[in-house]
Design a protein that fits this description.
Blueprint (H helix, E strand, L loop, with lengths): L2 H7 L5 H9 L3 E3 L2 E2 L12 E3 L2 E3 L7 E6 L28 E3 L6 E8 L2 H8 L7 E8 L4 H9 L13 E7 L3 E8 L6 H8 L4 E9 L2 E2 L8 E3 L2 H9 L1
Parallel strand pairs: 7-11
Antiparallel strand pairs: 1-2, 1-3, 3-4, 5-7, 5-13, 6-7, 8-10, 8-11, 9-10, 11-12
Helix pairs in contact: 1-2
Amino acid sequence: MRLNKYIAHSGVASRRKADELIAAGKVNVNGAVASLGCDVNEGDIVEVSGRIINPEKKTVYYMLNKPVGYITSVRDDRDRRTVIDLLPDVKERIYPVGRLDYNTSGLLILTNDGDLANRLMHPSGKVKKTYIAEVKGMFHISDAEKLRNGVDIGDSRKTAPADVEIIKQNNSTSEVEIKIIEGRNRQVRRMFEAVGHEVISLNRTAYGNLKLGHLKLGQFKKLSQGEIEYLKSL
């Protein structure tokens, strides 16, 4: 088994993050610093940051309604609150699928299924994420059209076309639903900034066809078998 897959199956991190840990020299196999792309055989001892890890035998899947004020990480070197703190009774070593920034709330998937997490986070997956944004100023049809066509947010390329619907507005603020298939850093906020609107609040309400429903802020639930199968079908 490839080392990054072994780490992902151990619930430590996604394969992408596992590669970063390997590249940083934080992973040892049988006492030696591991290299990217190496394989793990039965009986090998794998350590991450000095801790021996083993693949999880039971895969679990959760949906969390993340509040503002938590970082989307397993741990933080500055002792900030993480989303894992909101699931204290979960015994398995889970980690979030993708990210919601510190000031964004809403739907977040957490699991120890490294293969699924890796597929869902890969850019080729194009899973549609739905957000409700409250922004400053009156949001015009012309602003929506710009987002639908893609905008420059300071990266190497324009954003992919987005689905945009104006929910309500007045002279000072507007509420807008936006659906995107990408996951660049602070992307939704930067998209609205690109058309002249600062985001006041941002909430992710759906991940593909999965919706928060009646899940309250800070609460989590196990995904149903149907929801798990849906994610695996993406």
